[in-house]
Amino acid sequence: MSLYRDEGVVLRTQKLGEADRIITILTKRTGKVRGVAKGIRRTTSRFGARLEPFTHVDLQLHAGRSLDVITQAETLHPYGQAIVRDYARYTAGMAMLETADRLAAAEKEPALRLFLLLVGGLRTLAEGAHEPRLVLDAFLLRSLAVAGYAPALTACARCGGEAVQAFAIAAGGAVCGACRPPGAAVPAPGTLELMNALLRGDWATADGSEPRQRSECSGFVARYLQWHLEHGIRSLRHVERDWPLRRAEPDAAPAYGAHG
Ligand SMILES: [Zn+2]
Questions:
Q1: What does this protein's UniProt record list under function (predicted)?
Q2: Structural domain includes residue 239
């Protein structure tokens, strides 16, 4: 298959030479692909803004020895337009792209469920119907579940008992009083229910949650994800180390449509 078609979401871009970029894309059928977009940094480029982060594109690529070459790109959904206008959406969206990039560690290894979660998450973020932080946490929890790391939330991660009291990241999530390791955080009432609602896609419950539960949920999800990325995935796959999860500053990435 020297020439192939796929659809995907642009995760990130890097400059290459004088006028080109390497575009990292999570595709529907092929998995993560790195493709060269030749001449994309010229003002006359036929690619325009179609290969910016967050864009859902239909692609034609020519398979190369190391990098594939993107020969055509058509926009399916320009999610970035609605995401980069709002700082909370933008930071949530960047964390989603970076997490997808990390979880799809190996190139050209199909990751259909992760792709579908990412497209659904970006669409929800762009629509603005739910708080961006909740959309991000729902995506992170579901991505962890797809990767086989769903946290225990309704029963103890160690003994299966239902009287959960604390959240212990290394133990695998919620734990009961008897299994609780020293230092495990005790969540506010409703926080574990919020996490479970986000994991299941129960937006009525999630939207009705309180600020304290949301911030506690975000803290648990971020630390749980970080722990699994460091302990579970880095040891198995080749992963870049300079990954700025949730440290994205507004100036750290180019504005939508900007080249340079
Ligand atoms: Zn237990």
A1: Involved in DNA repair and RecF pathway recombination.
A2: yes
Look at residue 157 and tell me if it is in a domain: yes
**Residue pair 195/153 in contact by the 8 Å Cβ criterion:** yes
CA–centroid distance, 162 to ligand 1, in Å, is 8
Q: How many domains is the chain built from?
A: 1
Q: Of 127, 130, 169, 131, which is closest to residue 151 (Cα–Cα)?
A: 169
| DSSP for 201-255, written as a single string | T-HHHHHT--HHHHHHHHHHHHHHHHHHIIIIITTTS---S---TT---TTSSPP
Ligand 1 center to 188 CA (angstroms): 19
Taking residues 186-196, report their average pLDDT.
96
207 C-alpha to ligand 1 centroid (Å): 30
- For residue 166, the enclosing domain spans 130-248
Compute the distance from residue 182 Cα to the ligand 1 centre, in Å: 14
CA 234 to ligand 1 center in whole angstroms: 28
**Ligand 1: centre distance to CA 164 (Å):** 7
88 CA → ligand 1 middle, Å: 37
Residue 125, in any domain of the structure: no
Q: What are the C-alpha distances in Å from 152 to residues 76, 102, 144?
A: 36, 22, 12
Q: What is the pLDDT of residues 5-35, one digit of tens each?
A: 999 999 999 999 999 999 999 999 999 999 9
Q: First CA to last CA across the chain, in angstroms?
A: 33
Summarised one tens digit per residue, pLDDT across range 213-255 is 999 999 999 999 999 888 764 433 433 333 344 333 333 344 4
pLDDT class of 105 with cuts at 50, 70, 90: confident
